[in-house]
Give the backbone structure.
Amino acid sequence: MAKRKTSVPRKGSAEVARETNLGNHLLVFNDDEVIQLLRAAVEREGTQDAFARRHGLERTYLNQILKGKKPMSRAVLNVLGLRKVYTPNEALPAATPKACRYGLTGIVGPNH
């Protein structure tokens, strides 16, 4: 009598990717962390004015970003070597803000 083959549990794509080192291994920052990175970059430059001039940005807009009054612009993200990406909903905890639960925020770096 022939032996019955036992089924081997199948692995999900995330598990296979981890085991085989496939996929991107990225640094992921939330909006608050990107502001911290921006503050550190401005501090290294000395002043907001010096940072803005060096990178061709408007000082007033930079100030509004740092105060949380304006959203982070693509130009500022480029200066920091970052880019905006979208993440799947299931990768985020339920306690995150609504916009984050919809996968609408996430900043990764470096920008390639």
Q: What stands out?
A: The radius of gyration is 21 Å. The helical segments are 13-20, 31-45, 48-55, 59-66, 74-80, 98-101. Strands lie at 27-29, 83-84, 107-109.
